[in-house]
Amino acid sequence: MLNLWRLRLLQELADLGSMTAVAEAMQLSRPAVSQQLAQLEREVGVVLLERIPRGVQLTAAGLQLAAQARELLAHVEAIEADVAQAKGRVIGRVRIASFGTFATTVAPPAVLRLQVEYPELNLSFAELEPVDAIRGVVAHQVDVAVVDDLVPPQASSSSLEYVPLMEDQFYVVLADSHRLAARPSLKLSELAAERWAINESAAAYHGFLLKRVSNPRSCAAAGARCPR
Asked: Which residue has the higher pLDDT, 155 or 112?
């Protein structure tokens, strides 16, 4: 009979791409992962891995088995969840990912509450930019991803379900002496002529704001004077 644990390691290798990444994700040593996958090869009697200059890659048979393992493990987790629910328990593994500001503000108390209310729930959390988080869900590396609606359409997938969580707001930081500093809210058109300092590492927000300041149609719609 096939070992589910070894099948999970194979599936993780297919998703993550390297023995080292699997070892880190599963909190094992790299030799331990290698030994378990070698044992899986002996069990199935088929070559699943082949060495390449930078590590290993799955053979065609390995890729096929990894895909089947993903479906099997998802089914096993669903069965475990159903059984636990029948017993009035909430158990299982939930992998959550979100972008930085959510991860440092909303996520900690939410994760703490889940751990207190459902102590048998195995939670893991990762900080990922929205595009990477969505890719993680598609690749079955993440179960729940908290993202913003600035993610480009090509990063999405029709197989995903989106649920509105909350509304975010943009804040502008001005000097106390600025003519608009006392205003409780501002329109983009009132700031179009100002000199901006924007966090370039937050690519989605950076592009969102610049597009609306520099794009003539967006600026015209906002009643702003657009820079050349």
From this structure: 112
Q: What is the pLDDT of residue 156?
A: 58
At residue 225 the predicted structure's pLDDT band, cuts being 50, 70 and 90, is very low
- The verdict on residue 219 lying in a domain is yes
CB 26 within 8 A of CB 34: no
Domain that holds residue 35: 4-72
> Alpha-carbon distance 109 to 27, whole Å?
25
Question: Is the per-residue pLDDT at 155 higher than 60?
Answer: no
- 155 within 8 A of 135, measured Cβ to Cβ: yes
Nearest to 4 by CA among 32, 34, 43: 43
pTM over 0.90: no
Contacts of 153-156 with C-beta under 8 Å, sequence gap 24+, read 155/130, 155/131
Domain end (from 17, 37, 72):
72
Query: What stretch of H or E contains 222?
Result: helix 216-222
Extended beta strands in the chain, E state: 49-52, 55-58, 92-98, 121-127, 144-146
CB 15 within 8 A of CB 139: yes
Tokens 């108390």, located at residue: 109
114 and 68 part of one domain: no
Polymer length in residues for the chain: 228
Angle at the Cα of 169 from the Cα atoms of 164 and 170, rounded to 5 degrees: 140
